[in-house]
Amino acid sequence: MALQKQVHPDKYTSGTDQEKRLSMQQTSWINEAQATLKDPVARATYLLKLKGTDINLENETTMDAGFLMQQLELRERLGNIRNEKDPLDSIDQMSKELKSATEEMMKSFSESYDADEIDDAREWIRKLQFMQKAKKEIDTLSADLEDELMG
Q1: DSSP letters along 62-107, please?
Q2: What DSSP designation does 148 have?
Q3: What homologous superfamily does CATH list for 56-150?
């Protein structure tokens, strides 16, 4: 926050073109850094890059059959949620379960990373990516259900 205030473009409205350009560039870097730190997958991916390991999440997926089965079951539960007695309560419960599982995965990633077990760390990132997608689906479904109940 303090860094953003120091380089914010509004402070350089009467500055030179170079100062304005530098301010915009630095503001962009700060915003990108904040986004990376807030996103568990991006943060973990960046940490691996610091150790010299790149991961291309678009081309990689977990091969953990048990985990993939859990993801399929989660998607099935989401697909049937409208049929439940209290769908919003069910969504809330799923969201809590997902948050807890994500926190455990981040802890496991951290342990693997700290132990220089890079292959394991990469696997945790791949799994976290699934969790992130599931969270987006849950958030979208929750918003849709709330709209339906209000409308």
Answers
A1: ---HHHHHHHHHHHHHHHHGGGSSSHHHHHHHHHHHHHHHHHHHHH
A2: H
A3: HscB, C-terminal domain (1.20.1280.20)
Helix (H) or strand (E) holding 61: none
The answer to whether residues 44 and 106 touch, using CB atoms and an 8 Å cutoff, is: yes
pLDDT higher than threshold 90 for residue 125: yes
Instruction: Give pTM, 2 decimals.
Output: 0.80
Rama region for 107: left / alpha / beta (φ>0; ψ in -120 to 50; rest): alpha
CA–CA distance, 145 with 143 (Å, rounded to integer): 5
**How far, in whole angstroms, is CA 70 from its chain's centroid?**
19
Q: Indicate whether 74 pLDDT > 90.
A: yes
Neighbours of 27 (CB within 10 A): 17
Question: Could you tell me if 74 and 66 are in contact, meaning their C-beta atoms sit under 8 angstroms apart?
Answer: no
**Domain map (residue ranges) of the chain:** 56-150
